Amino acid sequence: MPQFDASLRVRLLSAAFALLIGSSSGAVALGLELGWPGLTDDDIVRMHAAAARLYEGRSIGTIERWRSPASKDAGEVKLIRSFDANGMPCRTIDYLIRFETARDMPDHYVVNWCRVPGGIWKIVELAQPR
What we know:
Strand content: 25-35%
Distance between the termini: 34 Å
Number of domains: 1
Helix content: 10-25%
Oligomer: single chain
C-alpha cells in the first residue's frame, strides 16, 4: 500500500480542488492549507482512501467507490491514466461526488497524483502537453 503522511490527507485532496481555480506551468507538488466546502473531513478521508487504492497495480478504467455513513455523501474515483512525468510515476484520477443533499458545489474533478522522492503520493500540477 502507498505511504501517506496522515496529517496531509485532507490538505492534499483539498489542494487538488485548488487546481481548478488557477494553474501555472511546470511541475509543482502542492501542499496548500485549504478547506473544502461541502465535504466533511470524513468524506475527504474516504474519497482519498478510495483514490489511493488506484495508485498501484490497477488497470486503466478501474473504479473505486466510497461512502460516508455520517454525511451520506458518496462518490467514485476512476483511474484514467498511468504515466511518468519528471521521473515520477503518476496517475490521473477522475473524481465524481454525489452529495446527499443538493448543494451548489462542483462535483467532478480530474487530478494528477505522482509519487515524489521518498515514496509519498502527492497532487502535482503538470504543464499541459503542447
